[in-house]
Write a structure and sequence with these properties.
- The chain is mostly helical.
- It is built from five helices and no strands.
- It has helices at 2-23, 40-44, 48-55, 65-90, 110-122.
- The N and C termini lie far apart (103 Å).
């Protein structure tokens, strides 16, 4: 009697586990064996069109936009190096070469500074 009493819940648990596990298994999509037609996305990939557009400028030899930009960059770099060599030949000013003290030139008028100072004197803690 005790054995029948324990076997019923154990059997129910096993059946529930089996049903639960089988519920997560994918069902066969084609029972008759008919093949589903593949779409262009499945055949070519989702991002193949984007990749082709990105790589468009890298193909084509010397006339491609990539080759033209690379040549332009090389010329620009050559011009920068020539300017740097000219500055090196000109030499650098060192601190021992400076004979006279110089100060930054003010671009603002002195009148504006006096007006600001006058306003500051009139106000005491922003109250008066």
């Amino acid at each position: 009697m005790m054995r029948n009493f324990l076997s019923i819940p154990v059997t129910m648990i096993v059946i529930l586990l089996f049903v639960g596990i089988m519920g997560f298994q994918p069902l066969p999509s084609n029972i008759n064996g008919a093949q589903k037609a593949a779409t262009s996305t499945e055949l070519n990939g989702l991002f193949d069109g984007i990749i082709k557009n990105m790589e468009k400028g890298y193909t084509g030899g010397e006339e491609s936009p990539y080759a033209k930009q690379k040549a332009f960059d090389a010329e620009k770099r050559k011009a920068q190096l020539e300017k740097a060599d000219a500055r090196k030949k000109k030499g650098y000013k060192e601190l021992k070469d400076v004979k006279k003290k110089t100060f930054a030139k003010m671009t603002y008028g002195e009148d504006e500074e006096e007006e600001e100072k006058g306003e500051e004197k009139k106000k005491l803690f922003g109250l008066f």
